[in-house]
Fold this protein.
Amino acid sequence: MEQRFTFDGVANLYDDARPTYPDALFDDVIAFAGLEDQDQILEIGCGTGQATQGFARRGLSILALDPGEELIAVARKGLEEFPNVRFVQTTFEAFPGEAANFKLIAAAQSFHWVSPDLRFAKTAAQLTPAGTLAVFGNVPMPSEPPFAEEFADIYARHAPQLSGPPAEAWYLPGGPFVEFLRQSEHFEAQAQRCYRWSRTHTEQSYTDLLRTLSSYRLLPTEERETLLSAIADAITAQGGEFELRYETHLYLARRSGAI
């Protein structure tokens, strides 16, 4: 199974466990893009609709794409009060497109899954002249002591391939996305925002979150359960909860004349 298709098997857990996005982010995107009620938004990889809700609550019309049937079912139920939100079950690569129709294309924690050959060329082609691409992702920061040492030891023993920076580091200012965007001839007038916040996790909420990550979904079941059990035991031994710090990184860019 392709890695990005693993989320559909845990759609309800994904909806419960995954963090949402700061409210200020949506206000910043709307301001940068100059969006008005009649403007159309295309969302790439909506998942269960965490980011979709942020735009829908501000009265915007959204066409949300995702390849996961179960993910879309959860998203549709959560957004049933918003008639201006439509869903299509497809990858962005397979989406036939609506050329120059969208004033904003948004990708929340999903742009790294899009084929590198199409990421910028196809998004630019779907945008109105001077339309905006908004790419954002939540990045968990390194745990504080004593959890940093405890977790490092657990991963070294049970899943060394998962040691090191998280996959979400792709969205950090020093990650690969920034350079990909800089090199693209399809976008200009770039801007960046960072939002810092934290979330308190119990052993249950943290292991539930890890169960929704594709790298953990692809582990053999016994290996995954042993790893998560050890992590839960470590959290319990340190009082049953810990604070996980996040940075949400937002990148904004306008379509250039070169498409």
Summary: The first helix runs from residue 11 to 17. Residues 3-143+165-198+246-255 form a domain with the Rossmann fold fold (CATH 3.40.50.150). The chain has a mean pLDDT of 91. The chain has one domain: 3-143+165-198+246-255.
